[in-house]
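Incident review: delayed structure delivery

Summary: a single-chain prediction request sat in the queue longer than the usual turnaround. Root cause was a stuck worker, restarted by the on-call engineer. No data loss occurred. The affected request and its eventual output are reproduced below so the record is complete for anyone auditing the incident later.

Affected input:
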Amino acid sequence: MNASIFSRLSIMMLFQYFIWGAWYVTMGTYMSAFLNASGVQIGAAYSALAIATMISPFFIGLVADRFFAAQRIMGVLHLAGGVLLYLATTISDNTAFYWVILFYSLLYMPTIALSNSIAFHQMTDPGKQFPWIRVFGTVGWILAGLMIGFLSIEKTSSTFYMAATASAALGLISFILPNTPPKGKQANASASSALGTDAFVLFKDRPYLIFFIAAILVCIPLSFYYGFANVFLNELGMENAASKMILGQVSEAIFILAIPFLFNSIGVKKMLLLGMAAWILRYVCFAFGDLGANTWMLYGGILLHGICYDFFFVTGYMYTEKKAGEKIKNAAQGLFTFATYGVGMLIGTWFSGFTTDYYSTGNVHQWQQIWSVPAYIAVAVLIYFVLFFKERNKSTVNS
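Output delivered after worker restart:
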């Protein structure tokens, strides 16, 4: 890969995740401040990405991959997305805001797969080359958080303006990205292949089925963090909370480097258990943290994001690929994404919204009770996993 292609792909990844980080982290705070939104309404807005995650594989598999060059359709989607992000700032009704975010999410989520496709198409050794490209996505997310804090726009609509500008910029940049031609009408484009149903054979393997169910359930605690952590920290009075929350992405980038070593040395079960235990500890920190003597607990809850996410979800992708083998690995990864970031997050975003409203009186949230709920759920998932996950020595499933 020459320097020109590397530079363009790196810029693509930086903008791709800068856009997401610019509006997603602070959306709950924005909705509370400007739309007087309830917990259910905030949860519903965050569920939009889960719905889009379930729909986007069909768009990619049935339309984009077959008829259009990936970089061109990504450009169109980001340009249209920039318009919708701007439109979101002009709306004062929660229902209308939800529909705008849903339509935007339907445009944005396919671009994640498209950006990966563009990158992989240029690589001779994806295993070694892709991490060096993908890391710029984490840099983009971190940069978005730093800019929000530096510009003091966390509680304003300017976060959406910033995301809209970046989306428009990436839309234009996309047209000069390396060409990734369509696969043509002869490509396998059935609805079942787009969903990844070929990977259903993995469910014959009991340890993987137990893991798969746990992965869906653990998305419920994950949803509490994504939807309400920024609201919580702002209500406590933490200054530039969005900028402080990027410590979670820094932690994620550090811990991901340890995964290949730990995956082979301590095994998948212990790594998954560490990930689930970290979810419990994170919410205990949030439940009892404050801006006084227990400020360290708030930072601890943020920094645990690396273990929470990497040791469960990144390990989960690796475990899925190891189980699936070469023949169905793409279908298996698609199915895992559909189940977790789609089904699991859809359940989690709605449940977190209802829980937050249940433990609220007017605009006053009982945060200790709210954070106790995902902690108890994580405990239940951990117990379920310890009791039922019994991995055998066989590492793959014959397909």
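Verification: Residues 158 and 291 are 27 Å apart (CA to CA).
Action items: add queue-age alerting; document worker restart procedure.
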